Every structure is written in structure tokens, then in C-alpha cells.
């Protein structure tokens, strides 16, 4: 599904003084999907139909500063606030218990939600992300954007540079039109200039390392890891620790896949998630 069609199927909802883009698809068991940095909920476009077919009511949203949601330019973004917004959305929609699926930046939001109210989360599926701050390996452009030079570099970012950097974390080819839609979601309302502020999640992960590690390792519900081992940021080296610390979890390791399983291998990823959520 193209970005324009995805956007047309949702609405902007006011939560905690901000307007966030939200979609709901299907009927049945609730599941909430949380996207990663620097893109948007559109990353899940190929996943949602499978989950709907598996009997799920799927809630997706663009986090604050991403996609079609508000992008306040001088805001101090934090993972805790993003978790507040997800919680506020659940209250607005009347969502009680829900399954939770998250990728990249979204895994930190998920860890914070698990730390707050693990009993609300019926089952959890996580895709490539920095679950352990000491294992996170940001690529060069992320390190530069996170540095004092970040504001200048963000203004120089264009689609060509964005696409080249994104391809560097992929393991399988992705069509140009998909990458174009990803850039469009980032650049909407000059969102690419927010990268230095949004990348403060790297600091959040370090500060809250023990809280978020504890929520991940202490969660007692069913857990699935859908992982691309070729990811240079959070790939096979993270899997090794997850297998050690979460030996009872389920694993769907996608050969030849990098940082974006749901984009690089949409059918394999969606099928793994649908089977897990329907179990």
C-alpha cells in the first residue's frame, strides 16, 4: 500500500496536546504496532492485512515527531513521552488488554510500557531494535546526527543521502518506490530536521538501561523476536544475548534480512506475527 493510501485510511487524533496520526484496521483481538526511527507507521502497511485476516483489531500510529503526526521543532522528545502518548491513545480508544508489536525505536517504547503495566500486554513481539543499550551500534550518520554537528547535518539531508544510509542497514533489496515513501514520511513538515532531537533516545536507553532490561527479561507473557541477522545496528549480536536471557521466547530469524524485517521480508514477517498473535 502506498503512503498516500495508508494516510487516507487514518485520522489525526489529539492526545496530550498533540495531534497524532492513528489507524485502526480489522476486528477481533487488539494488537498495537509501534514503528521505529526515522520512519512511520507506514512501515507496517504490508503487515496489517495479514493480522486483520488472523482476526486482529490492529492499531497503528505515528509517534510524536514522525510521519503525519505533529512535529514540534523545539520539543524535547523522549521515549517516556511516547509511551505516555500510546497509553493515552489506548484510553481514548477504550483499549484494555492488547498485544504489542514494536520495531527499532519502538522497542524502547515497548520496554517502557512493559515496565509500567506488564499485565496489560497479552503478548509481545519485537523486531530489530536496541533492546540492550550496550549492544546498540548506530551507523555513522546516526552518530553524527547525535553529535553537536547534528543540526547542521540534518539540514543538509536529502532523499539521496537518506536512501543511501537506509540501504546500508538493509540485507535484502527494497524497491525504490518503497524507499521514496519512507523518505516522504520523514521529510513531511521538515521532519528530517528533527533527527538530532529524536536521536536522544540513544541517551534514554543508557539512562534507563536497568529499568528497560528488567522489563524485557522479566515479562512473563508470550514473546516473539522477528529478527534480521544481517542488521549492522541490532543484528545477530543481539540475538545471541536474547537467546541467553529469554530462552523460552520464540524466534523467527529471517535469513539475509537486515534492520527492517517488515519492509525487506514483508510476507515472512507478517506470517510469523500472524501465527504468533493467533496462537
Number of strands: 8
Element-level helix/strand string = HEEEHEHEHEHHHHHHHEHEHH
Q: CATH homologous superfamily, by name?
A: Alpha/Beta hydrolase fold, catalytic domain
Instruction: Count up the domains.
Output: 1
Structural class: alpha/beta
Distance between the termini: 27 Å
Instruction: Figure out the total of helices.
Output: 14
Task: Give the strand order of the largest sheet, numbering strands 1, 2, ... along the chain.
Answer: 1-2-4-3-5-6-7-8
Give a brief description:
With 279 residues, the chain is of the alpha/beta class. The protein is 43% helix and 17% strand.
Explain what this protein looks like in three dimensions.
It is built from 14 helices and eight strands. By secondary structure, the chain is of the alpha/beta class. It has one domain (3-278): 3-Layer(aba) Sandwich (Rossmann fold), CATH 3.40.50.1820. Strand 3 (29-34), helix 2 and strand 4 (56-61) form a beta-alpha-beta unit. It is globular, with a radius of gyration of 17 Å. It starts with a helix and ends with a helix. 48% of the residues are buried.
Amino acid at each position: 500500500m502506498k503512503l498516500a493510501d495508508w494516510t487516507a485510511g487514518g485520522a489525526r487524533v489529539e492526545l496530550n496536546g498533540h495531534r497524532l496520526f492513528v489507524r485502526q484496521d480489522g476486528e477481533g483481538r487488539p494488537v498495537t504496532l509501534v514503528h521505529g526511527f526515522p520512519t512511520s507507521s507506514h512501515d507496517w502497511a504490508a503487515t496489517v492485512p495479514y493480522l486483520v485476516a488472523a482476526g486482529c483489531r490492529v492499531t497503528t500510529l505515528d509517534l510524536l515527531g514522525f510521519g503525519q503526526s505533529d512535529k514540534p521543532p523545539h520539543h524535547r522528545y523522549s521515549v517516556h513521552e511516547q509511551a505516555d502518548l500510546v497509553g493515552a491513545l489506548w484510553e481514548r480508544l477504550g483499549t484494555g488488554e492488547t498485544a504489542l508489536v514494536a520495531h527499532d525505536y519502538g522497542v524502547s517504547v515497548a520496554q517502557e510500557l512493559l515496565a509500567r503495566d506488564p499485565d496489560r500486554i497479552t503478548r509481545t513481539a519485537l523486531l530489530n531494535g536496541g533492546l540492550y543499550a550496550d549492544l546498540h551500534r548506530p551507523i555513522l550518520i546516526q552518530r553524527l546526527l547525535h553529535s553537536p554537528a547534528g543540526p547542521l547535518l540534518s539540514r543538509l539531508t536529502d532523499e539521496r543521502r537518506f536512501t543511501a544510509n537506509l540501504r546500508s542497514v538493509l540485507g535484502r533489496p527494497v524497491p525504490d518506490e518503497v524507499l521514496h515513501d519512507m523518505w516522504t514520511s520523514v521529510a513531511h513538515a521538515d521532519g528530517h530536521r528533527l533527527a538530532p532531537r529524536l536521536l536522544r533516545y540513544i541517551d534514554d536507553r543508557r539512562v534507563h538501561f536497568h529499568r528497560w532490561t528488567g522489563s524485557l527479561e522479566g515479562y512473563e507473557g508470550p514473546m516473539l523476536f522477528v529478527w534480521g541477522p544481517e542488521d549492522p545496528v541490532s543484528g545477530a549480536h543481539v540475538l545471541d544475548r536474547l537467546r541467553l536471557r529469554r530462552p523460552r521466547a520464540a524466534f523467527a530469524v529471517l535469513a539475509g534480512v537486515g534492520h527492517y524485517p517488515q519492509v525487506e521480508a514483508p510476507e515472512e514477517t507478517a506470517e510469523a506475527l500472524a501465527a504468533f498473535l493467533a496462537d
